[in-house]
Write a structure and sequence with these properties.
mainly beta, seven-stranded mixed beta sheet, globular
Length: 124
């Protein structure tokens, strides 16, 4: 069993930055891709970013491309999401997830384990 715990959320003004962390325990996450998703009130959970098994390839939603950066530290079994130039529309609960495969995917069906989420609120 894998436990994923997100941290780093909070409230920030538009244009500001936050760095989310997701620490995994229970097993190593190396060898599998990981992803970040978000869910705003009344909306579906959506893909934000994903990083492949070795950390050398990443994918981003169009809405965050150029502003967010995903990375991972295998030694710490942790994945990060650096969020810059934040906008009010980035406000959501952010979740990290561990996939079943090596390559990144935006489809939630490819992810087996999910964290409990961390709230990000961006004020205008």
């Amino acid at each position: 069993q894998v436990q994923l715990v997100e941290s780093g959320g909070g409230m920030v003004q538009a244009g500001g930055s936050l760095r989310l962390s997701c620490a995994a325990s229970g097993r190593t996450t190396s060898g599998l891709s990981m992803g970040w998703f978000r869910q705003a009130p009344g909306r579906e959970r959506e893909f934000v970013a994903g990083i492949n098994w070795n950390g050398y390839s990443a994918d981003y939603a169009d809405s965050v491309e150029g502003r967010f950066t995903v990375s991972r530290d295998h030694a710490k079994n942790t994945v990060y999401l650096q969020m810059n130039s934040l906008k009010p529309e980035d406000t959501a609960v952010y979740y990290c997830a561990l996939s079943k495969i090596q390559d990144t995917r935006s489809d939630r069906g490819f992810y087996d384990y999910w964290g409990q989420g961390t709230q990000v609120t961006v004020s205008s």
